[in-house]
Design goal:
Layout (H helix, E strand, L loop, with lengths): L1 H46 L14 H12 L4 H10 L6 H13 L3 H13 L7 H13 L3 H13 L6 H13 L3 H12 L7 H10 L4 H14 L12 H14 L3 H10 L1 H7 L6
Helix pairs in contact: 2-4, 4-5, 6-7, 6-8, 8-9, 8-10, 10-11, 13-14
C-alpha cells in the first residue's frame, strides 16, 4: 500500500507539468464543438425558407381588436378618426398593425384599409414588399376602386417593387373578373415588360378570364403563341348556351297534348310558367 502511495506521489510532478497541455487541448475541443454548432445553425437558417411578414398568418391581439372596433365606429367622424389614429394606431405593434390591415381588407373596408396602408408605409420597420401591394390591389380590384388602384400602383412604382409572373397573372385576372378590362390590360403590358422570366401559366389564367372580351383575348392569344409556339390554347365551343336554349324550345314545341295534361295534373304551376294550354 505504501509502495502504491509512493508511486502516486512520484507521478504528481509529471501530472502538474502536463496539466497546461491537457487544459489547452480540452479548451480546443470545446471551441471546435462551439464553432461546429454555430456553422450548423447558420447552414440550417440559410437553407430554411423564411416567409415574408406579409405572407405569415396574422393573429390579432386585444389592442388590434380594439382598434378595428373603434375605427369602424369613428369612420363617420373624420376629426375623431384622425385623433384616434395618432393616439392609438401609431402605438400598435407591427403584428397587430398588419393584422388590422388584413382584417379591413377581408371586410372590404376601402377607406379604413387605405388609412392603415398609409400608416404601415410610415413605420420605421416598413420595407417595400410585393405581397403587401398584391393584397391591396386584389382588394381594390374586388371593389372596383380605380382611383385607389392607380394611387397604390404609383406608390409601388415609386418604391421600385417588381411583381413575379404569377402575381401579375392573379392581378390581371382579378381585374377581368370584376369588369375592369382596361386596367387589366395596363397590368398585362407591365407583365410583358417585366424582367421576371416569362412562363405560360399566367397567360393561361388571363386567357381564361378573357372569354367575355373576345377582341382582347385574340391579342393575348397571339402574344402567347408567339412566346410559346409549342403550346396550344383551349377554344370553347361557340354559341354553346344559345344552342342549348334553342334545343329546349324545340323540345317544348313537339310535346304531345297528352303530355301537357299529365303535366297539368302533376305540376299545375308549370303550365302557368310556360304559358301553355292543355288540349281539351
Amino acid at each position: 500500500m505504501f509502495g502504491r502511495a509512493a508511486k502516486l506521489f512520484a507521478e504528481i510532478p509529471s501530472l502538474q507539468i502536463l496539466a497546461p497541455t491537457l487544459r489547452s487541448s480540452l479548451q480546443g475541443c470545446r471551441n471546435e464543438k462551439l464553432e461546429l454548432g454555430i456553422a450548423t445553425n447558420r447552414s440550417f437558417s440559410a437553407s430554411s425558407p423564411s416567409l415574408s411578414i406579409w405572407r405569415r398568418k396574422k393573429e390579432m391581439g386585444k389592442e388590434g381588436i380594439f382598434v378595428v372596433q373603434q375605427l369602424k365606429r369613428l369612420v363617420s367622424d373624420r376629426f375623431r378618426l384622425e385623433r384616434f389614429m395618432k393616439t392609438h394606431v401609431s402605438r400598435l405593434l407591427k403584428s397587430d398593425l398588419l393584422a388590422v390591415l388584413a382584417e379591413f381588407q377581408r371586410q372590404d373596408q376601402i377607406f379604413l384599409s387605405m388609412k392603415i396602408y398609409d400608416s404601415v408605409r410610415k413605420e420605421i420597420w416598413y420595407r417595400p414588399d410585393m405581397y403587401f401591394y398584391r393584397d391591396m390591389l386584389l382588394m381594390l380590384a374586388r371593389n372596383k376602386k380605380v382611383d385607389e388602384v392607380k394611387r397604390v400602383w404609383g406608390d409601388l412604382k415609386e418604391e421600385g417593387v417588381c411583381f413575379d409572373q404569377h402575381t401579375y397573372g392573379d392581378i390581371v385576372r382579378a381585374f377581368l373578373d370584376n369588369g375592369l378590362p382596361s386596367l387589366a390590360m395596363e397590368f398585362y403590358e407591365e407583365m410583358r415588360q417585366s424582367v421576371d422570366p416569362l412562363i405560360c401559366l399566367p397567360y393561361r389564367v388571363i386567357l381564361k378570364g378573357l372569354f367575355p372580351y373576345p377582341e382582347l383575348r385574340e391579342k393575348v392569344k397571339e402574344d402567347f403563341l408567339e412566346l410559346f409556339p409549342d403550346m396550344s390554347v383551349y377554344e370553347p365551343p361557340e354559341d354553346l348556351f344559345d344552342e342549348q336554349d334553342q334545343c329546349s324550345d324545340d323540345e317544348c314545341q313537339f310535346l304531345e297534348p297528352s303530355t301537357f295534361c299529365n303535366i297539368k295534373l302533376l305540376f299545375p304551376s308549370f303550365l302557368c310558367f310556360w304559358g301553355c294550354q292543355p288540349h281539351p
